[in-house]
Design goal:
InterPro entries: ABC3_permease_C, Membrane_comp_ABC_pdt. It is a multi-pass membrane protein. It holds the Pfam family FtsX. It is found in: Cell membrane. The protein has 776 residues and is of the alpha+beta class. Among the domains are: 169 residues, no CATH class; 179 residues, no CATH class. It is built from 22 helices and 22 strands. The strands form 3 sheets. The chain has a 6-stranded mixed sheet. Strands 3, 4, 6, 7, 8 and 9 form a 6-stranded mixed sheet that branches. Helix 7 runs parallel beside helix 10 and helix 18 runs parallel beside helix 21. It is elongated and about 95 Å long.
Length: 776
C-alpha cells in the first residue's frame, strides 16, 4: 500500500493541472449534489416541524357575511369522521388602512385579516415554533411581511380609518402553517381578543374560516360534499390540506430541484472529464501496462494500481463536498427556515446529503473500474506496440499560399483529422453553456408577466379584485362604470368564480371551481383544444382533467342549483392557482353564489401603468388593484429571490469549469502533440502561429458547443422545467429567453474567457524545440 501511495503522490506532482481540474469537477459535483439534498432535507424537516406544532386543518371553507351558528354546530355533531372543528373569526382590514414603518400596504396583493390565537389546532407560532401569545396593544406580524418590509420586533404597526387610529407594538414574527407562502393570497396578523373587538367597531368586516380535522383515511372531498350539500356558508375559497402541501412544496422545493438538476449536469461533466483523463493516461502507460501483464502481474492488481488515484480523489471530493454543502445548503435554505423553522426531523439534513455523496462516489469509482478493466482486455502485444483501436487520423494539405496565412486552414485541418479527441471537451462546453442558460431562462420565465398564463389567466397590464361583501354587486357596477368612462383603458374583461359539482374518476361527486368570463379578451395558450365558445363548453385545468379523467372531446356532467347539465370538454389549460384544479365555462351564477370578481385590463399605449394604478386606487378605494408584473413578483417573491441566487452561482460555476476544462485539455493536447509542435517550429511556424492554431481549434469547438447548448436549453430545458412544475398543474411550459443575454452577452463572455485561458495556457509552447525530439 505504501508503494501505491508513493506512486499516486508522484503522479499528482507530475500532472498537477489535470489532477486539480478533475478534483474541482468532482468537488463541485459533490457540493451541488449534497447541497441540493441538504436543502431538500431541511425543507422536509422544517415543514414537518411546523405542521407538528401548528396542527394545520385538513379542510378550510372561508365565508364572508352572517351564518347560522346552530346549523354549523349540528352539522359537526352529525359527522362522526370529524376529529375536531373550529370557527376562526378574521377581521379583514383594507390594506390602505394598515401602516407599517410609515408606509401603507395599499400596493400589497395580499388580503390581510386580524385574528386571535386559535384553540385546539391551527395555531400561529412564534420564531421558536411555540404557540404565539400577544397582550393588549401587541401584534404578531406574518413572516411574509417581516421579510418583505423588514419588520422586526419592537416596530410599530398602525391601523387608521379617518379619525380613529390604533397603534400596535410588534411583539413577535409569526409562522402560519396555512398562509405562510406568498402563493397564499391571505395573511393573518395576531392580536388580542380585546383589540380585535375594539378595531372591529371602527373598520374592517368579518370573515369566517370553518376549519376541520378529519379521521385517518377520510378524504377531504367527503367532508366538502357533505358541507356544501348541507347548505352551510360557502361564499369564499375552500382549501384542502393537499393544496396547502402543494403550495408549500412549490414555494420551497423548486429551488432544491433546480440545484439537484445542476448537480446532475456537473456529475455528467465530471464523468466525461474523468473518462477522458483515464483513457489519455492509460494510452501513455500502454507500454508499462503491457510489461506488467507480460511478467504475470494479475489484472486485478494492475487495476488497483491505476484506480487508487481516482479513489483517493473521490474520497477527498466527497469529504470536501459534504462539508462545503453545509453552508451552501444553509444559504439556500435560509428562506424556508425563516418561514417554517428548523424542524423536528433534523437528521434529514445530514443523512440525505451523505447518501447523495456516497452514491456519487460509488458511481464514479465503478465508472473508473469499468474503463480501466476494458482497457486491460487488450493483448500484451497490442499494449507494448501501442496499437489503438481507432482508425488512422487521416491527412490534410498544407496551405499553398505560405505558412503565414495558413493558421486557420491548419487548425481546421487538424480539427478534421482529430475530431474524435474533441468530443469530450465539446460535450463539456455544451453542458457548461446549458448550465448558464437553464437557470437564467427559468428565472426570466418566472419574472415575466407572461407567467400569468400559467396561473389560468391571459397576459394583461392590471388586475382588479372585488372580493365578497354584502355590496359585491354594487362594487362591481361601480368599477364597470369607471372603466367604461375612462378613455385611457384600452380593453378589459370581467371574470366571476363559483362552484359546480362533477364526478371524479372514482364516481364520487365533488365541487369544481369554475370561472365565467370573456375568455377571448385575454386568451390562454391551451395544452389541447380551445377556450369555451358557448354555454355548452367547459375547459378544464390540467390537474382537474387528470382528476376527473377527462380529455378534449369528452362529455362532462355538472350539477348547479340541483340541475344537471352535460357539457363538452373543449380545452385543457394550465393553472397553478387553487391547487391547480379549476375550470372555465359560461355558467350564469346566481349573485349569492359568486365569491368575487376579477377584472383584467390593458391601458392604452404610452400610459404609465404604475401611475394609472395609483389613480385607480384613489377612485376605487373598495377594490384591490395590482399591476400584473407586481402581482407575479409578490406571488412568487420567495422563489424569485432564491432563483436569482442560483442563477448567479450557476454562471460563476460554469465559467470556472470552462477555464478548468480548457486548461486541462490544452495540457493534455500539448503533451500529446509535443513532437508535432516541435516539427512545426522547425519548418517555419512561429510560436505565435502555433498558439493561434491551438486557440482556433478550441474556439471553433466552443462556438459550436454554445449553439448546441442554447438549443438544448430551449428544448430539454423546457422539459425539465415542466417536470418540476407538473405537480402544481403545469405540464408544458415555454421558457422565455432574454435574447441579448442568451444569444449575445453570455456567448461573448464564454468565448472571451476561453480566449484569455488559451493565451495563458499555451505559453509553454515557447519552450518546445526540435532538438528535444532528436535527443529523445
Amino acid at each position: 500500500m505504501k508503494l501505491l501511495l508513493n506512486l499516486v503522490r508522484k503522479d499528482f506532482k507530475r500532472n498537477r493541472v489535470i489532477t486539480t481540474a478533475l478534483a474541482v469537477f468532482l468537488i463541485l459535483s459533490a457540493v451541488f449534489m449534497a447541497g441540493g439534498l441538504r436543502v431538500t432535507g431541511i425543507m422536509l424537516s422544517s415543514l414537518n416541524g411546523l405542521n407538528e406544532m401548528a396542527v394545520p386543518p385538513e379542510y378550510v371553507q372561508m365565508h364572508k357575511g352572517e351564518y347560522d351558528e346552530q346549523a354549523f354546530a349540528d352539522f359537526v355533531a352529525r359527522q362522526d369522521y370529524l376529529e375536531a372543528a373550529l370557527v376562526v373569526r378574521m377581521l379583514d382590514v383594507n390594506n390602505a388602512q394598515i401602516i407599517c414603518n410609515g408606509e401603507s400596504l395599499e400596493k400589497c396583493l395580499m388580503d390581510n385579516g386580524f385574528v386571535t390565537q386559535n384553540e385546539n389546532f391551527d395555531y400561529l407560532l412564534d420564531q421558536n415554533n411555540q404557540i404565539a401569545i400577544v397582550q393588549d396593544g401587541e401584534i404578531g406580524v406574518p413572516v411574509y411581511y417581516a421579510e418583505g418590509l423588514n419588520i422586526k420586533a419592537g416596530d410599530t404597526i398602525v391601523l387608521q380609518n379617518g379619525d380613529y387610529q390604533k397603534e400596535f407594538k410588534v411583539a413577535t414574527i409569526i409562522r402560519d402553517s396555512t398562509m405562510n407562502s406568498s402563493l397564499s393570497y391571505s395573511k393573518r396578523f395576531l392580536i388580542s381578543a380585546n383589540d380585535q373587538n375594539e378595531v372591529a367597531l371602527h373598520m374592517g368586516e368579518w370573515e369566517y374560516c370553518f376549519e376541520f380535522l378529519l379521521a385517518e383515511e377520510v378524504a377531504p372531498t367527503v367532508l366538502e360534499n357533505a358541507y356544501l350539500a348541507a347548505g352551510l356558508p360557502s361564499n369564499g375559497v375552500a382549501v384542502t390540506a393537499g393544496i396547502f402541501n402543494m403550495i408549500n412544496a412549490f414555494s420551497y422545493g423548486l429551488v432544491a430541484l433546480v440545484i439537484i438538476v445542476i448537480s446532475m449536469l456537473l456529475i455528467t461533466m465530471s464523468v466525461l472529464c474523468l473518462s477522458y483523463i483515464i483513457r489519455a493516461t492509460l494510452a501513455e502507460e500502454n507500454h508499462s501496462i503491457g510489461e506488467m501483464k507480460a511478467i504475470g502481474i494479475p489484472g486485478k492488481e494492475i487495476i488497483k494500481l491505476y484506480q487508487i488515484k481516482y479513489i483517493i480523489l473521490v474520497l477527498i471530493a466527497g469529504v470536501i463536498g459534504y462539508l462545503a454543502a453545509i453552508p451552501f445548503g444553509n444559504f439556500f435554505s435560509a428562506m424556508v427556515i425563516r418561514y417554517c423553522g428548523n424542524g423536528s426531523s433534523q437528521w434529514m439534513q445530514w443523512i440525505f446529503p451523505l447518501m447523495g455523496v456516497v452514491l456519487l462516489s460509488i458511481f464514479v469509482v465503478c465508472r473508473c473500474y469499468w474503463i480501466i478493466r476494458k482497457h486491460l482486455k487488450r493483448t500484451v502485444l497490442e499494449l507494448i506496440r501501442g496499437e489503438e483501436n481507432t482508425k488512422k487520423e487521416g491527412h490534410y494539405r498544407l496551405p499553398s499560399k505560405g505558412l503565414k496565412v495558413g493558421n486557420l486552414l491548419m487548425a481546421l485541418g487538424e480539427l478534421k483529422c482529430k475530431w474524435k479527441e474533441y468530443i469530450v471537451i465539446f460535450l463539456i462546453f455544451v453542458f457548461s453553456s446549458f448550465l448558464i442558460l437553464l437557470p437564467m431562462n427559468m428565472n426570466n420565465t418566472i419574472n415575466n408577466p407572461v407567467f400569468l398564463t400559467y396561473m389560468g389567466i391571459g397576459k394583461s397590464d392590471v388586475r382588479i379584485d372585488i372580493q365578497y361583501s354584502n355590496n359585491l354587486t354594487q362594487q362591481n357596477e361601480e368599477v364597470m362604470t369607471y372603466l367604461e368612462k375612462d378613455p385611457e383603458i384600452e380593453q378589459y374583461a370581467v371574470y366571476q368564480n363559483g362552484y359546480v359539482q362533477s364526478q371524479n374518476v372514482d364516481g364520487e361527486w365533488e365541487y369544481v371551481r369554475v370561472q365565467n368570463g370573456e375568455n377571448a379578451v385575454f386568451p390562454l395558450e391551451y395544452l389541447d383544444g380551445k377556450a369555451p365558445q358557448d354555454e355548452n363548453d367547459m375547459a378544464l385545468s390540467y390537474l382537474n382533467a387528470v382528476d376527473l379523467g377527462k380529455k378534449v372531446g369528452d362529455s362532462i356532467t355538472v350539477i348547479y342549483q340541483e340541475k344537471e347539465r352535460v357539457l363538452n370538454v373543449c380545452g385543457i389549460y394550465q393553472d397553478i392557482t387553487y391547487g391547480g384544479k379549476t375550470a372555465k365555462a359560461a355558467i350564469d351564477f346566481d349573485s349569492k353564489d359568486i365569491e368575487g370578481y376579477m377584472i383584467y385590463l390593458d391601458v392604452r399605449e404610452g400610459i404609465d401603468i404604475d401611475h394609472k394604478t395609483a389613480e385607480m386606487r384613489t377612485a376605487l378605494p373598495n377594490s384591490k388593484i395590482t399591476p400584473c408584473n407586481e402581482f407575479v413578483f409578490q406571488t412568487l417573491s420567495s422563489i424569485i429571490t432564491n432563483m436569482n441566487r442560483v442563477q448567479g452561482i450557476a454562471v460563476m460555476i460554469s465559467l470556472m469549469l470552462t477555464i478548468l476544462i480548457t486548461v486541462m485539455f490544452l495540457q493534455l493536447m500539448m503533451a500529446k502533440e509535443h513532437s508535432a509542435i516541435a516539427v512545426k517550429k522547425a519548418i517555419g511556424f512561429s510560436t505565435r502561429d502555433i498558439r493561434i492554431q491551438l486557440g482556433i481549434r478550441i474556439l471553433v469547438i466552443q462556438f459550436v458547443a454554445i449553439i448546441a447548448g442554447t438549443l438544448l436549453a430551449n428544448t430539454l430545458g423546457e422539459v425539465i422545467f415542466a417536470g418540476m412544475l407538473a405537480t402544481v398543474g403545469v405540464a408544458k411550459i415555454k421558457l422565455l429567453v432574454e435574447p441579448v443575454w442568451a444569444y449575445l452577452l453570455c456567448p461573448a463572455v464564454q468565448l472571451g474567457v476561453v480566449v484569455m485561458t488559451v493565451i495563458i495556457g499555451t505559453n509553454t509552447v515557447r519552450s518546445y524545440h526540435i532538438r528535444d525530439q532528436i535527443m529523445e
